[in-house]
């Protein structure tokens, strides 16, 4: 797991030199002011750590089943907390450990201060009843003075709770990000496994924060009462006796059983509410993302109905929670606030009433004829002031003890909520580990994977497919739907390939296998290193940032400077893709806008080509990346890539693009048993075939006027305006039908 080890500030000019110093760290540059950049140094993640943790989550479900079968005392919640604790506090000597230890010390200090305040409260009441003004003033000054450390202690506990929550959340989020955003592309693959987890953004942004706040708040709300119980019980045992303390704890135990018996399933309810809130949020997000499409379709009514249905489901669940909470809160308040307070008064008054019923007997021997000693019960009057003082102390401590016990009982609901948050976070981490594993089985929960394909990287011979099937990743594994069978071809570095076929035939799926998004169930895929191949998806993605960020994506500005590039280089790239007018239209490279709404379709695709020129790879995969530009611009862009010696693999349904390529992989049902044909466009035989196809197309185009005239005659005949149709026209009609 990663952690921040250094935070420094440097000027922009220093960034290039400082980046090359530490190669074993991940560097994050955060702008600070106009001329400063904060360089955050984070150690690289330990892959061994995640490989070891994988078995904790993988074996968790199996161990749970075994324990349940053996009827052993088992707590799923505690086992999950133990595993998550390795992430929250990875080492004994860490920042979070120090915060936790400091919070424990402050909790003990607050209990000790509460004991002093209770004694001081009793002393003040005693002085007030005895009309001792001097001691009353003295104790009042003590009261004011002790308020300073007491107030500081209360504030420190709240501060440490918040800081500890931030520390836990930081460790947990970094652990999640290390697996969620990496070269394995878990963020994409996990979307294919929605049987166990939905709305993963809700899990990461909302549930993790609630889990950290809940566990830290629970530690504070349970730690202080537990310490109070120990300290106050020891003190009260000397004044009330062991029997009273046993009675108090028996009352606690009985109350816990009653409340546990009538406690609703708050954990399950909380988990369901979070799920419904995520659905409602995503429904709004979907409307915002696709607002233009919905507006064109005039789909306001159906979208409103969906939103209302989602909101009503959420409100029904919240109403159910409110009803449960009302009944439980009434029982909880009656037992904890009033019943326990009554018992507190009973136990606080025991020393006074027991003194009257069973007076103390002196232990010293009295000889016959001697006068009774001064402390004899017959001669010592009852000290009402002392009794009042002791009663106030006992009352305050017993009420504090009752409050401590009640807060522990109140924590039952908090523990129930924490159980729901813990289960959701644990489910998230389990799915991340499943997806992050090299043997991840798509949509298969815990069964063995049948992914046996081999991927050879850093291949110098270009791109090679050997007996590779294109299978939609599902829980059926290799028995799922096959789009293309046994792909076999090789493309050298200096050659270009057009993968041609209709929509839905599996063109883009081939690119997904090349990029590692889909599994290679069997066969051999040989390809260059990831730095030498660049992928352009059908839909161009624009990041949140300025115009410069759109060109250099996925690189950062500081990485651009480290590579020796500047804005002049970017301007040259814009000129090459004929987008240099953007600087005049938008202002400069630093302007920030919602670029997906600013750029037109053609500008988006030319911006994608600009990213290729900035990256300058050996290979680029183009998935319908030029279908929105004009024909002359399309010709220019392909020639530009050829002049840059960038080999390209193009996915398209347009045969007109064959003129830019050396080979064609045609995916078409019925061509052969595997559903594909590989053509070499550079051979004479294929060139003749292409010429024949062009000649046939030109012949058909030359007869368009004749066919249009015949269509008009047929329409006239159908309308009853012309009853005479010659045989030649019928033959022409048959010819038209045959051609199409």
Automatic annotation (TrEMBL):
The chain crosses the membrane at residues 99-120, 140-160, 240-259. Keywords: ATP-binding, Membrane, Nucleotide-binding, Transmembrane, Transmembrane helix, Transport. It comes from Metschnikowia pulcherrima. Signal peptide: none annotated. GO terms for cellular component: peroxisomal membrane. The lineage of its organism: Eukaryota, Fungi, Dikarya, Ascomycota, Saccharomycotina. Belongs to the ABC transporter superfamily. ABCD family. Peroxisomal fatty acyl CoA transporter (TC 3.A.1.203) subfamily. It comes from the Eukaryota. It holds the Pfam family ABC_tran. GO terms for biological process: fatty acid beta-oxidation; long-chain fatty acid import into peroxisome; peroxisome organization; very long-chain fatty acid catabolic process. Residues 105-331 form the ABC transmembrane type-1 domain. GO terms for molecular function: ABC-type transporter activity; ATP binding; ATP hydrolysis activity; long-chain fatty acid transmembrane transporter activity. Residues 463-694 form the ABC transporter domain. This is ABC transporter domain-containing protein.
């Amino acid at each position: 797991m990663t952690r921040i080890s250094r935070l420094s500030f440097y000027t922009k000019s220093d960034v290039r030199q400082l980046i090359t110093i530490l190669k074993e760290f991940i560097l994050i540059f955060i702008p600070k002011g106009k001329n400063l950049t904060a360089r955050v140094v984070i150690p690289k993640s330990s892959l061994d750590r995640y490989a070891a943790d994988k078995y904790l989550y993988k074996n968790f479900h199996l161990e749970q089943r075994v324990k349940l079968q053996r009827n052993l005392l088992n707590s799923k919640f505690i086992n999950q907390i133990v595993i998550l604790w390795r992430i929250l506090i990875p080492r004994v000597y860490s920042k979070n450990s120090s915060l936790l230890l400091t919070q424990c010390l402050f909790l003990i200090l607050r209990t000790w201060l509460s004991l002093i305040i209770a004694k001081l409260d009793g002393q003040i009441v005693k002085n007030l009843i005895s009309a001792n003004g001097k001691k009353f003033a003295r104790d009042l000054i003590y009261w004011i003075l002790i308020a300073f450390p007491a107030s500081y202690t209360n504030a420190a506990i709240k501060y440490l709770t918040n800081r500890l929550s931030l520390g836990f959340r930081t460790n947990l989020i970094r652990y999640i990000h290390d697996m969620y955003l990496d070269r394995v592309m878990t963020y994409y693959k996990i979307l294919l496994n929605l049987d166990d987890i939905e709305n993963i953004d809700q899990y990461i942004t909302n549930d993790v924060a609630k889990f950290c706040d809940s566990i830290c708040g629970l530690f504070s709300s349970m730690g202080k009462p537990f310490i109070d119980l120990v300290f106050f019980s020891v003190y009260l045992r000397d004044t009330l006796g062991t029997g009273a303390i046993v009675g108090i704890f028996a009352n606690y135990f009985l109350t816990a059983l009653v409340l546990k018996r009538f406690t609703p399933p708050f954990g399950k309810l909380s988990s369901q509410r979070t799920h419904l809130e995520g659905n409602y949020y995503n429904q709004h997000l979907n409307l915002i993302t696709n607002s233009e499409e919905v507006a064109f379709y005039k789909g306001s009514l159906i979208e409103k109905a969906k939103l209302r249905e989602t909101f009503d489901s959420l409100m029904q669940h919240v109403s159910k929670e409110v009803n449960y909470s009302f009944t439980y809160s009434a029982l909880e308040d009656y037992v904890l606030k009033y019943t326990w307070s009554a018992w507190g008064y009973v136990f606080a008054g025991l020393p006074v009433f027991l003194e009257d019923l069973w007076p103390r007997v002196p232990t010293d021997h009295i000889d016959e004829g001697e006068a009774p000693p001064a402390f004899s019960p017959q001669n010592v009057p009852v000290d009402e002031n002392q009794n009042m003082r002791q009663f106030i102390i006992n009352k305050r401590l017993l009420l504090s003890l009752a409050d401590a016990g009640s807060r522990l009982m109140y924590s039952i609901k908090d523990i129930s909520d924490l159980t729901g948050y813990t289960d959701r976070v644990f489910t998230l981490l389990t799915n991340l580990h499943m997806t992050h594993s090299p043997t991840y089985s798509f949509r298969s929960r815990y069964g063995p994977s049948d992914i046996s394909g081999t991927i050879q990287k850093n291949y110098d011979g270009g791109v090679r497919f050997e007996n590779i099937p294109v299978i939609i990743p599902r829980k059926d594994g290799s028995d799922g739907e096959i789009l293309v069978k046994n792909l076999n071809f090789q493309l050298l570095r200096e050659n270009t390939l057009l993968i041609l076929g209709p929509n839905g035939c599996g063109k883009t799926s081939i690119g997904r296998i090349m990029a590692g998004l889909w599994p290679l169930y069997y066969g051999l895929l040989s390809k260059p290193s990831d730095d030498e191949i660049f992928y352009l998806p059908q839909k161009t993605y624009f990041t949140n940032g300025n115009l410069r960020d759109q060109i250099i994506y996925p690189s950062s500005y500081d990485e651009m400077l480290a590579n020796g590039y500047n804005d002049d280089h970017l301007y040259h790239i814009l000129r090459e893709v004929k987008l240099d007018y953007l600087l005049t239209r938008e202002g400069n490279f630093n302007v920030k806008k919602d670029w997906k709404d600013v750029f037109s379709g053609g500008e988006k695709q030319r911006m994608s080509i600009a990213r290729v020129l900035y990256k300058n790879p050996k290979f680029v995969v183009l998935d319908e990346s030029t279908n929105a530009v004009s024909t002359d611009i399309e010709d220019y862009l392909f020639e530009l890539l050829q002049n840059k010696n960038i080999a390209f693999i193009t996915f398209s349904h347009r045969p007109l693009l064959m003129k830019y390529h050396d080979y064609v992989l045609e995916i078409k049902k019925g061509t052969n048993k595997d559903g594909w044909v590989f053509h070499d466009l550079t051979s004479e035989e294929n060139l003749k075939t292409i010429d024949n196809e062009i000649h046939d197309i030109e012949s058909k185009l030359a007869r368009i006027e004749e066919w249009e005239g015949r269509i008009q005659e047929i329409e006239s005949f159908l309308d009853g305006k012309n009853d005479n149709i010659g045989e030649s026209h019928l033959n022409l009609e048959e010819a038209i039908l045959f051609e199409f």
